[in-house]
Specification:
D-Amino Acid Oxidase, Chain A, domain 2, FAD/NAD(P)-binding domain, eight-stranded mixed β-sheet, 10 helices, alpha/beta, 30% helix
């Protein structure tokens, strides 16, 4: 089978589907090819957070603001309920060292326009009445939100299909050739697609597609293990995270070295309640290659950590566990844009834990670039050639 398209997108995760959706809205003829099925990668094995508080002032925080704006449009425009909610978020602080770092971090975010503050223990308990006494203070941000990743992907998919997108499931590229202004992709089932542009949105596997084009980008998988509880009565007013994860990144000397197992699995605390009443409890950050198995030792750590913050969870049942592979980069920034040495070849991958949160704006930015529209933001920090010694 031979196909012609304006754009060939690889990857039916949240970023690839978002890109295809925005391209279709702009009237482009799009073919989307997925090696497995929709959401088979990190997009289907993650939590549901649109988290502002973890981001340093700069391009990622700016993109997050735009994404939330676009999510509110998508809530109206996409078919089905994407379960967008803005519950707010809190980052739990356990000692004075963490408090000092978070006060400085919050002040820098305030200057950048984020509505976040430090609240004392009394205010904390109003929002989180079940919190443990180990927490001495907390941040609070009213803008932190969440969305159902599977519903979001389904919405993107149905909308794009209604606009003419052709979807190829269980098909992947085996050869990519560039000739003048055209790309020719030879796919695993024998299909040949000729297109003006290619978008590589294959997450942790992005370098496999890049290799077919003769380039290398340093995207590697970072494993995250997560617990899912039974449906529970609302535990608190907001979703929550621990300050240790953020403070240890900002001040490595504050990393807790007293728990070797926590260090082994890169333990961090994330706690979000779904639309249906289940809670997602995470997570680990492991450099474990493409291994997606869940490890009882890590699962036990996650459960103990949840009870540490919320003793009431000691009576809750865990109904399942899962692991996903976040696409990580050396500098913690995604690759978004055209590869300078390969006109018409775009990369949209490497978001690690921000794939869901930044999917609307990433897809729109890439679609704009392909259509010759200057993006609303200066995304030079995210340029696809930044580790190749190339200029944009």
């Amino acid at each position: 089978m031979n196909l012609c398209a304006d754009v060939l997108v690889f990857g039916a995760g949240v970023t690839g589907l978002s890109t295809a959706y925005w391209l279709c809205k702009k009237g482009k003829k799009v073919v989307l090819a997925e090696k497995a099925v929709m959401g088979a990668g990190a997009s289907g094995a993650c939590d549901d957070m649109i988290l502002f508080q973890s981001k340093k002032p700069g391009i990622l925080l700016k993109l997050a603001f735009k994404s939330l704006e676009l999510f509110r449009e998508l809530e109206k425009d996409l078919p089905g309920d994407i379960e967008l909610e803005t519950r707010g978020g809190m980052i739990f602080i356990e000692n004075d060292s963490q408090l000092k770092v978070m006060e400085e971090f919050v002040a820098s975010q305030n200057k950048y326009g984020l509505n976040v503050e430090i609240v004392d223990k009394k205010q904390l308990r109003k929002l989180q009445p079940n919190i443990s006494d180990c927490v001495i203070a907390s941040t609070y941000c009213s803008q932190d939100s969440q969305v159902n990743p599977m519903s979001l992907m389904k919405g993107y998919r149905l909308a794009a299909l209604s606009l003419g997108m052709k979807l190829l499931d269980r098909i992947y590229p085996v050869e990519l050739n560039q000739n003048a202004s055209k790309w020719t992709a030879f796919l695993s089932d024998g299909t040949v697609v000729e297109s003006e542009a290619i978008v590589n949105a294959t997450g942790a596997h992005a370098n496999d597609v890049c290799a077919l084009a003769g380039i290398n980008v340093p995207i590697t998988p970072r494993k995250g293990q997560v617990l899912v509880t039974e449906q529970l009565p609302r535990i608190g007013e907001t979703n929550a995270w621990s300050a240790l994860y953020i403070t240890s990144k900002l001040k490595p000397e504050l990393t807790d070295m007293s728990n070797p197992l926590a260090q082994k699995y890169g333990l961090g605390f994330a706690f979000s309640g779904t639309h249906n009443g289940n809670y997602l409890i995470g997570s680990t950050r492991e450099n474990a290659g493409f291994d997606k198995t869940t490890i009882p030792e890590a699962i036990s750590l996650l459960g103990n950590q949840a009870r540490h913050f919320f003793p009431v969870l000691g009576k809750a049942h865990i109904i399942r566990t899962f692991a996903g592979l976040r696409p990580s980069t050396p500098d913690g920034m995604p690759f978004v844009g055209e590869v300078p040495a390969l006109p018409g070849f775009y990369v949209a991958a490497g978001h690690e834990g921000d794939g869901i949160a930044l999917s609307p704006v990433t897809g729109k930015v890439v679609a704009d670039m392909i259509c010759g529209i200057t993006p609303e933001f200066d995304i030079s920090e995210l340029k696809a050639g930044r580790f190749m010694g190339e200029k944009t």
